[in-house]
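stuck on this chain:
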Amino acid sequence: MAGRIIFHIDFDYFYAQCEEIRRPELKTRPVAVCVYSDRGGDSGAIATANYLARKYGVKSGMPIKFAKKKLEDIPESVFLPTDFEYYTETSENAMSIIRNHADVFEYVGRDEAYLDVTNRTEQDYKKAAHLAQQLKNSLRTSMKLSSTIGISSNKLVSKIASDYKKPDGLTIVEPHEIESFLDPLPIRSIPGIGKKSEEKFSEMNLETISQLRSVDVFTLNGLFGRKIGSYIYNAAHGIDEEPVSPRHDPIQYSRIITLKQDSKDFDFLAKDLEKLCDDLHGTIVKDNILFRSVGIQFIQSDLSNRTKSKTLRNPTSSLDELKKTVIQLLRESLEDQKLPIRRLGVRVSDFTQISGQVDITRFF
């Protein structure tokens, strides 16, 4: 479709960056976030590493033992276990900011999304650059989160562009620049091209996308089959017609804030909880969903975690129902609450999509 403007946004070294946000002193140290296996010890793999650790050759997917070997002479290096609950919360809060900058928002994973911004930028790349910078600033100011954005007329080129300058990058590829932008890039820059395909191209003395462009579609179909062959041929020419389409994969939506002061006072906490409900409800309505499970979360003064949830009789998207349930959960939780609360969160899950006409349960 002519005239589209698409963003691909990617959070830089996401899990490690989340750990740096939580503990700012880690920013000056090599950090590797590890998925430990059940075998104990250093068995497992690196989920992600910050750029300081990458300088020493630590990469995602590398066995933890190898990574420790690479950093053995760096006593300040840090190896941390994954905390997916915290990364999911950070992601959801960031996605709610991103969603507000899009005409159409497509969730891809915890650390990436596509935005169609054609209407709000009036198909103008200068306005698109300004919007992207606003979005990056907004994530940095409100969440201390650094991100990289690629901008072009389609999803494929935007994804390649978001990988072009990292971290904290912004790359704009206007339609007339697509081929010259792709030309010098290695073939593996095309999403979906793995090691085996790359080796096959290497045997044919093809290293860059411009060299790949000289191969006709019939040869590619012969090598990879029609579907993949056509995809590679189109990708080499920067062609991708797939629209940005709303996709909501999160298994829960949540909001969490750090309180102005540690507290276990009901009125003080209730006020902040109601604000979180208002914010969360905006996303629920926008995404056209009903929820059936409501939960609250306390991060206590000693950083331990407490949660309490309730399953409703019927799915709903009512703000009143959400607030009423959350306040009831707060009241019950505070009965035996010993430690003051430092961070406070609300979450909803067990989703149903509203289809066709507005579901009557929304009103009850």
